[in-house]
Amino acid sequence: HLATSLPLPSERDHLRPRIDLIAFMIDIKSKYSLKNVEASLDHVDASFFLGKVCFLVTGVGRVNNCSVDMNAIWKLGEVYCSPVLFCELELEGIRVATAQRLLRMLQICAGHIPGVSALSFGSLMRNSADD
């Protein structure tokens, strides 16, 4: 399911499926995109930041057209203890690899991978980013 911002409308709460992973998309060419994500973060329950949130930064192949400060994106990942993924949606190979990575994260967050929790996976992602 996709939403352009949070909070989600409450009139359909009873029909909404369980939310296992929230992927915030930030378009590197749009300051509005980052501001929208920052405003939406206030509407996310704190428990989601225990491995069930990630930031997906798109448009990274066009760094010369960058409107968003990369340090602000890295800071979001640090402050919210959530992984930051980078991708270029216009390149099919990278788009497919990113989709597979997100699907694997979703499977872990939904509890479909025995022995791996969202919290341990989130910690593993942060540790690998530090290396």
TrEMBL record:
| Subcellular localization | Chromosome, Centromere; Nucleus
Keywords assigned: Centromere, Chromosome, Nucleus
> What cellular component GO annotations does this protein have?
chromosome, centromeric region; nucleus
| Chief localization | nucleus
Q: What is this protein called?
A: Centromere protein M
